[in-house]
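Notebook p. 47: complex prediction with NAP.
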Amino acid sequence: MSSTIINSPIAGCMRWGAWGSKFNTKAYQEIISACIDNGITAFDHADIYGDCTTEADFGAAFKSFASKRSDIQIISKCGIQMLGPNRPQHTVKSYNTSKEHIISSAERSLKNLNTDYLDLLLIHRPNPLMHPDEIAEAISQLKTAGKIKQFGVSNFLPYQVTLIEKSIAVEYNQLEVSIVYTDPLFNGQLDQCIEKNIIPMAWSPLGGNIFSNLTDAKNKRVFDMASSMTSKYNTTVSAIFLAWLYIHPSGIVPVLGTSQIERIIEAKDAKQVKLSKEDWFKLLEASRGKEVA
Ligand SMILES: NC(=O)c1ccc[n+]([C@@H]2O[C@H](COP(=O)([O-])OP(=O)(O)OC[C@H]3O[C@@H](n4cnc5c(N)ncnc54)[C@H](OP(=O)(O)O)[C@@H]3O)[C@@H](O)[C@H]2O)c1
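Predicted complex, structure tokens below:
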């Protein structure tokens, strides 16, 4: 495995600001503090979260954690150009993986987050116009300047990772995978992570909120199956969904989406739930609505 800086589940910050809980500075400080106290030291951002406001909101709270900076890992992403009042110069939603954009986006994230370096910078989405040499030049320059420590991609298919690796090693691939979105188990993304020692991170590890939509047939099937296992494992349904990811041999690291401190703590404990392989396949079957071939 690549030398990881991430040793615990990651706290995803996408829903903490304008796109969700609208935390004020005090609420950010409380949740950051609770995460750190419970050994969850990595925080996942992107330049665009909260219509490009969440990094700065988090950064205002993060100032008071400056003395703990070396024990904390900050992840950000770049490459999506959104439309909206905070980016009036954009006329179409698009991707930008030019050297100039990657460097300026990372530098803006540093300023907003109130930090001198990112532990990890990810290219948010594969860009049909990307060239690996240009990405590699930007990343090398940022690394040499001490502005980022590690580099990865997000939502990249295996052939897109291979393209980038023509010019620079990819250390992480943050992708959507969960009990209700199982494509990466079958499309080569997780196989490639094992093959190339790339660390996979799972975004929407609880399907973006399975619990809120149990009228959906797939959500209901997996919820019912996990519910039937909670007493055997002495745990909760959401811990079973996370344990289902943890068992994968690629070493999936979930990026948690909750804004609730007690749910973050519960997610950390899910690593202790050791699902049997039989139960893992029962959950897979419930998700796909059919047995494996
Ligand atoms: N790279 C990418 O392209 C990409 C895309 C999307 C997201 N992400 C990252 O992934 C992170 C997680 O994504 P996500 O927010 O979709 O993750 P998720 O954990 O699948 O979903 C989070 C939602 O589920 C709810 N939830 C969690 N546990 C629950 C429980 N036990 N019972 C009921 N509801 C529960 C949360 O509500 P409460 O807050 O009330 O708990 C929240 O609304 C984001 O913050 C972001 O950092 C990355």
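Notes: The longest strand covers residues 148-154. The chain has a mean pLDDT of 96.
Next step: compare against the earlier run before touching the bench.
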